[in-house]
Task: inverse folding
């Protein structure tokens, strides 16, 4: 993906930092001695950032529409994962279990599309337009009004849903795993905090510090490797007859990249099921990027939001560990296997957030 130019990148950083600061402030106000489940706070803050970028609109945390959207997204991610076999066996839709799931998914889609139209109408009625994907698409749609097949209303709705849903769920889930690994591996957390103390002092981390906070970057990458949030990857399709090893792959074949298999293959990773950020640190102390590390997939159809995701994850992780020491409640039983829908999410858990001096 083409990188953002300097001024756009700076503006994006400020928008992300506003979200990060809100998240940290909310967590500080909700601290409890026996820990808290940070999911709702994180979902609101990360989701609202995507609301801002995609729709040009943000919500108060207890807004009823926003609470409904968050619930719908959580349920949708679970249902899409369960409904995955329908891609390969369409006849399963006639079974009650899958039929109910499909009805729920379609009903949710129609309701969200209706809401999106309301947001589009609000945008068009405002004299001052927002800097958002919705505004850019709407402008392109009007500019190309003579070619109605190029920008369509259904495409508009689905792109809004894809950008918001994919951007929120993947970043939120990756960061939840990161915090869990920091709590279960306190020695790795201390390495990161010692590195920040030594290199930044009291300065708050910013994107310009990515190239020096190697321990932090390595821990984020190890989280993405060990807990591939889309274990089966995202299905692609072949556009021509091709050959993969000894296999002939015809044009139009669905190809599913098994990210979990790649990221835990002992041929590429020593002791692959252990959390070892040092595997991403080269002998000279620089950041190593093995070819078998593909959290955003690869090629022309890789994740379009990879740069935004990297910015969000770095700033969230850096500012969170700068502000808190994260640990587990006494006698907590933490399940690191997770629950798999379309993404692999942590099971409900509580963490202790202790403000750092």
Result:
């Amino acid at each position: 993906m083409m990188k953002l130019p300097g001024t756009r990148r700076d503006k994006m950083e400020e928008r992300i930092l506003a979200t990060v600061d809100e998240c940290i402030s909310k967590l500080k106000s909700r601290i409890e001695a026996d820990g808290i489940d940070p999911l709702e706070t994180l979902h609101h803050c990360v989701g609202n950032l995507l609301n801002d970028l995609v729709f040009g609109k943000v919500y108060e945390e207890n807004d009823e529409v926003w609470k409904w959207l968050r619930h719908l997204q959580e349920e949708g991610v679970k249902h899409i994962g369960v409904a995955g076999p329908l891609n390969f066996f369409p006849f399963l839709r006639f079974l009650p279990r899958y039929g109910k799931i499909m009805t729920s998914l379609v009903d949710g889609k129609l309701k969200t599309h209706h809401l999106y139209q309301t947001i589009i109408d609000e945008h068009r009625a405002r004299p001052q337009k927002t800097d958002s994907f919705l505004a850019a698409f709407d402008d392109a749609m009007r500019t190309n009004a003579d070619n109605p097949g190029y920008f369509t209303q259904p495409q508009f709705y689905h792109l809004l849903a894809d950008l918001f849903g994919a951007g929120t769920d993947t970043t939120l889930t990756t960061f939840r795993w990161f915090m869990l690994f920091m709590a279960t591996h306190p020695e790795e957390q201390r390495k990161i905090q010692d590195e920040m103390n030594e290199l930044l002092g009291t300065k708050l981390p910013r994107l310009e510090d990515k190239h020096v906070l190697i321990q932090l970057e390595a821990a984020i990458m190890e989280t993405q490797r060990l807990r591939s949030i889309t274990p089966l990857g995202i299905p692609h399709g072949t556009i021509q007859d091709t050959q993969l090893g000894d296999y002939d792959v015809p044009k139009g074949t669905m190809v599913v990249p098994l990210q979990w298999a790649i990221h835990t293959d002992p041929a590429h990773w020593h002791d692959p099921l252990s959390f070892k950020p040092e595997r991403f640190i080269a002998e000279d102390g620089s950041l190593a990027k093995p070819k078998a590390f593909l959290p955003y997939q690869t090629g022309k159809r890789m994740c379009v939001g990879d740069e935004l995701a990297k910015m969000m994850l770095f700033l969230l992780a850096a500012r969170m560990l700068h502000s808190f020491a994260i640990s587990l409640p006494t006698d907590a039983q933490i399940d690191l296997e997770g629950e798999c829908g379309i993404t692999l999410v942590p099971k409900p858990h509580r963490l202790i957030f202790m403000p750092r001096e």
